[in-house]
Batch of 3 targets.
Target 1
Amino acid sequence: MSCNDDFDLDSAGKRRTLWIVLWLNVAIAVGFFVVAYFADSNALLANGLDNSSDAFVYALSLLALTRSQSWKRGAARFSGIMLLVFAGGVIADAVRRFIEGSEPGGLMMIAMAAIAAVVNLICLRMLQKLQQKDVNLRAATTFSFNDFISNGGIIVAGIIVMLTGANWPDLVVGIAVAGIALYGGIDILRDAHRDKHEEAGTQHIKGDEFRR
């Protein structure tokens, strides 16, 4: 999909891009959940939940395109909070699997992560081509970048699982994905807070984004 430098903020092209990215994330999320079940994988489950939250955020982004800047910041904040909640759930599941034990399927992990990496790279490239991104679209781009990095981690974990037969690589990557989501959520909340100060012409105080 081609995008020129004058890509309008609320253009049909931008909406089309977000719709494509939205449905790609829905498809990948479903794939992650199905394969995670058969592969007994925390890392795949983590990415499935991640892509599900991404799809929801892209839907919010579509609604936010023609809304006020305040509404967009609210949507971005909600996205950041969703990531923080998601991270907590993944860590809890990893702890459960560590205590109860699991037998992740390395080959299925690698195959699913490779497919997802290609899709997430496509999404990332499409979002990066958008010009004049608001706070909500910057959040969407952060999500796609995080997903692409996570997919690479799953591939590495799948290889180690196949070589060792251990479940710890799957759990480590699952927790790492949660960590990436945690960082991404905090970064989005900070960006939304900075955007508020920029619009108001006031000074941003470091750390203040977590007190408002």
Target 2
Amino acid sequence: MSTHFDAASAAPGLADGPSSRRAFLQTAALTVAGLLAARPLRAAAQPSVPSVLTMTVYKDPNCGCCAEWVTHVKQAGFAVTVRDIADMASVKASFGVPDALGSCHTAKVGPYVVEGHVPADLIKRLLREQPAGRGLAVPGMPMGSPGMEQGGRKDAYDVLLFDKAGKTKVYASR
């Protein structure tokens, strides 16, 4: 039994000299490049934000800044259902929003709660990153936050990620 490798029979043209080898390698490289280009590209392992972002906002029927915040999230691409509720304290309690984090409106988006004037880009980041936690909150009603724009005044504020126990950490500062 012979163990001799015959390059000419394995890849015609390889034994015919350097120019034939070069042509073979160029053809092989183009074939591999074509196969790689034809494969669908896989996204990074990071979850993506759904193309239609749905949100339910619970707010007092007489609150103007809540309506402005709803306009803000709609402009950012969220499909919003508004529920006018007179007893917001019961809504916040049912979603596990600690009293210290309270604001004027509460929203539910995906598995998360959004309390107060949280910027829409941070809600999208929350949905994309999916950190462990109950949701995001902007306690109080800081001037310059979405829905609280008053001329050029803009107070610095933190957006807090909170968990089921009510513990918080700063998710972003604005």
Target 3
Amino acid sequence: MWIALSGIAAPHSFTAAILVVGENVEQDLAEAVRGFVLAADERDGHPNETSDGHLGGVDVHVLPLPAEATRLVQELTGSPDEPADVVIVLGPKPAADDEASKYSRSSTVLVQALIAEGWNGDDRMDGFIARFRLAHGKEPGPLAASGYHAARRLDVAIRPLDGAEPRDELLKAWQASEFGLPR
């Protein structure tokens, strides 16, 4: 109520960087962003979006990283800010942890484990696979599934906070979603 009375608007958007590390960074980054954006478009959307979707009921602007690997990334409409509010790191350990440490001062860093082999045989992934195939005309790869899962986890973590702050609460909510998401 204080915010409404003071005339100060609470931020209703945030920037989520998707940082991919590994060998095929350009291709993997494009796949991860496709999966992430698919999840960000599932709930709370509206016509004439100026962001890349919604997570937790809040506009999300996607910032693909590393910047030199964005050639294959398409379909983004948002205007992300740097530094990002949240950096989601996807890739094999220990490289993912090493890259994550570079962003921890300016952003909330969330490391997403890559989806385990055999993920596409899991019945719980059928809806995602069908939506991805419809949106992109091909089967999703493990980086698309990992990006999708990261966005779903972020949606669950941000929803009760109505944004990417406070940092400690966001980290707790992210960690709580590690072993399962509500249906």
